[in-house]
Each structure stands twice: as structure tokens, then as C-alpha cells.
RNA sequence: GGCCUCCUGGUCAAUCGGUUAAGACGCCGCCCUUUCACGGCGGAAUGAGGGGUUCGACUCCCCUGGAGGCUACCA
């Protein structure tokens, strides 16, 4: 019995040979400097900010000079894979306008020549490579019981290295070929493990685009290539897929740095050229106790990308914020190109920060305010309306039936050289302008001002007419104020405040309180225009 | 236990051996504005600690500390 016999006994239904496979995946035709990147999510039912961050790095790298960005679904973990979860990923990408060059459609059609782009549809390929490795004596079948959960591993670790034994050889690696074949034929389940060629003293070097050169202990473990259900874990699928699919830069989370030596030995065993890695940092949060912690599903709504849709953040704001985290050069670029679209920013791999950033909502909001400030009134209206159609149907209807009014509302302090910066997501607009939708029931009137307030509102209501210009409106406020004994001239008011009931600012405050219930609102004249004469009269109790 | 990564203001961060250690957000103050804002100007606030190397260290080296990751038939 030979290794060839053993190899034949394994996965007898796999007829594809490695040579045939390699023919099907010819090297890509790339021009100088073009890169192939990919986004390879596990369909767990959600796309979170960390995934998205990584996807965006990958996507941006491709963008610089052509090349290919593809999507590969890594559904090899039965436990974690959620049915229909790929939909969520597609949906998020679609909403953000990210289009992979190659992917598999939801109804199973592969777009691109290097598919299938879903890993569970590639099992024959993985198994064919496994057979080859077994034939070459670089891998072997393992009949051991599966290690269950992490508890076992932790237990092992206590004793594992006491003798300074750096190797972790699997007992099955030296099983006689005859016995292995017999057990396979008998129907025993088996995994395939790599037969590491290392003894634990070797070192490896690899280059990471973000961290630079990294040197580490080489792998000396007979790790699993194919699980006993015939499905490969991450490492084997990664080595094969990213080679066959011609990925030139593998962007993945920095949690993979530690297992890269394993991947390197695997590439070598398979006879593949090693790839270039780009291990991106993770995103953090400041916890309630002031400590850093990983951003989490449970405590941080902004973890899930759906959050940004639900709140109604413009896509551009999210992208600009992420760009801000990815590259420190972006902000500088934004400053010198205030009106350019973010996609014109030249993304350089060398600028990617190596440090895990802390997510800062306040900064996101600031960036988003700037995005809104550049929009026209109709753009804001349309975005708001589209958002409402999905998340607030009643509001959507209201916006439709009074379009002119709401475009006017969206235009307050907008479409001018220095627009107001207040709105940062569509979801906040309704609350922000709640007094537009209904007469306020409470006011922020200060204690002690009640009489003056009532007096002013009454006087203002007396000859009220909706002004047709801001100047006219302001003159109107001043006139009423003056007649009641308010200061017309701010200087004299400041010199002798006790001589007056207040200044024009105070008068405006009263008017604002009457109409909006607040001491703080956008331009009152414009708000009155939006409310319209009859509604203003109503609020002045005319 | 072993291996690896990271460490400049509250946050994002520039510097790639020589600077009064940029800039942005946030915070505070002032100015502009006789509405709310926008805006303008200014301020407080940073090299984890300790050793080296060097004329000179945030930058290079070592140690300590802190944070995180990997060490699964998870990714």
C-alpha cells in the first residue's frame, strides 16, 4: 500500500484533479500595478462596522488603478452560518452603492470567471487539493475525536509547553497507511491534517502592508485542512481560493496575524506563491467606565450597519467618517478640496493607520453635518422622503402632501455660502422641527418672564401680518418691542439695561417661544414662512 | 505558558533623528450678529515608565507596564 492508495481512498467521489482545476483558473490579466482585492464575509446574519471597514479598505485599494474587487461568501462554519444571511450583506453593499466586480447573485449565478464565489460550492476543489497533499505525504487523515469548544484547549495549554516541546504533532500522523485505508473503508469519519515539516524551532517572515515586516515562530502544528464533514476551515479555503481567484492583496482583520505562519506553511505545501497581506485594525469604543473595549453588538447600536440606514445617515457621511479613520491624509485632502467627492481622494496603502481607532459618534455627526450643509434643499427633501418611506410611513405621506412646505423647511439657512450646520441624519429632522408639525405644548420660558412674555405676544399679535421679507419682519418685531419699552439700540441697552424691558433679542426670544416653544431654533423669519400666516396667527392666539 | 501586534491631548491624529510637538472633532473664552445660527480669533489639553545609542530621540535599541489577538475539526 502506498500514499497514492491512501489518497485514492480519500474522497473517492472527487474526480477533479489539481491540474484540471488549475487550468480552469488561469492567472488574471493584470496591467502594471493593478490589484485584485476581495471582501470575504461569513454570512452570520449581520454586517457590522468592522466588516464594513475592512470591505471599504479592500474596495478602495482596488479603485486606485483598476483591477478587480470581488465578493466571496465564506460559509464554511455551519454553526455560525445563518440561512439567507448573504442577503443582508448584499443589501448593505447595495444600499451603500458598492458593486463587486465578481460575485454570486442571490439566485446562484456567478458573475465572473473565477467562481463559484460561495465556499460551500467549492468543496470538490478543496478535497482535490487535500488528496494531492496526502499523495505527496504532506497531509494525512486523522481519526481523532473532535476537540469540543475552548475549554479543552485551555486545559491543554496548562501543560502543553512544560517540557518546552514546541511541536504539536497529531497522533495520527504516523499511522501506518494500511491501517488508515482500512479505517476509511470501514466508514470511519476522518479529518485531513497538514503534516507539518517543522520541528518548532523555525522562524518565518512575512510582509504586512500596514505593519511592515513581521517575524514569528513558524507553524509546527498538524492543523486541520478539511473537517470530518468534508468542509475546510478558514485556512485551507483561504489558501486555495485566494490563489485560484488571483487575489493580490488579502485584506483581513488583524486577528489573523497570529495564524499567518500557518497559512504560510500551507501555501508552501500547496506549491503556491505567498500572497500579500493587509491586516486592518479593529474598531473600538470607550466603555461606560472610560476604558477601551471592542465595539460590540450588544452595547453599541452603531456596530450594525443597519443603524446608519435606520438613523438616516447619508452614505457619504459614513464613507467620509471611515476614510477619516482609515487614512489621516483624508482630512487634509478634504480641507484643500472642500467640494470634491470623497471618492476622488487618492487612497494610499501606506497611510492606513496601524492603530485600532475608537469610534466617535460626535465626529461622525460633525462630518455628516458638513455633508448635509453642502446639499440643496431638494436633495435634503428627497433624502428625507426616501428615508421616511422606509422608516416612517406617516411622515412620508405628510411630506408628499405638502412637498412645497417641506422643501421650504429644508431650505432654512441652506443654499447659501455659509449654511447652518445642524442636521446630521434624516431620522432627527422630525424631532428637530417638531414645532413645525404641531403647536408646541410646552415652552422653555424662564421663570419671572411670564408677564413680559404675555404682554409682548399680545402686542405682536395685534397688528400681525406675515412679513414678505426678512427686513420687513425684523422691523415689525422692533416696532412692537420699541412701543413696549424695549431698547431699539443695543448700545444704550447695554449701558443702561434697567431703563428697558429688554432688547430686541429678548423680544425675539418671546416670539420664538410662542411659535416654537424653544429659545433656540433656526431663523425665525423663515420658520414663520414655513408655518404660514394662519398657523402663526393660531399660535399667537389671534 | 508560548508567539504576535499596538501605545503622541478626551477622540482621530502629523512628525518618518533637529519643529515653540501640526491639524480636525469636542470643551472653554472673546469677536461678529439688536433673532437662532454660520463664521472669525484665541485658550486649556499629548509623546505609558525606565534605561541606553547619539552633539541631539516622540522617532532607533533594550527592559518594564498597559491594551488586544492567536495558540479550535470558529472565522
Count of DSSP-assigned helices? 24
Counting helices, strands and paired strands, the structural category is: mainly alpha
Q: How big is the Rg?
A: 33 Å
Helix content: 40-55%
DSSP strand content: 5-15%
Largest sheet: 3 strands, antiparallel
CATH C-level of the largest domain: Alpha Beta
Low-confidence region ranges:
none
CATH topology annotation of the largest domain = Rossmann fold
Written description of the protein model:
With 542 residues, this protein is mainly α. It has 4 domains: 1-280, Rossmann fold; 292-373, Glutamyl-trna Synthetase, Domain 2 (Glutamyl-tRNA Synthetase, domain 2); 377-432, no CATH class; 450-539, Arc Repressor Mutant, subunit A (Orthogonal Bundle), CATH 1.10.10. It is 44% helix and 9% strand. It contains 24 helices and 13 strands. The protein has helices at 3-9, 18-24, 49-63, 85-95, 123-135, 149-160, 177-185, 234-244, 260-270, 306-311, 315-326, 329-336, 361-373, 377-391, 393-401, 403-410, 429-432, 434-437, 450-462, 470-484, 490-495, 504-516, 524-531, 533-539; strands at residues 36-39, 68-71, 103-104, 110-111, 139-142, 191-194, 203-208, 212-217, 224-226, 249-253, 276-280, 284-286, 292-294. It starts with a helix and ends with a helix. The protein binds one RNA strand of 75 nucleotides through helix 6, strand 6, strand 8, strand 9 and helix 8.
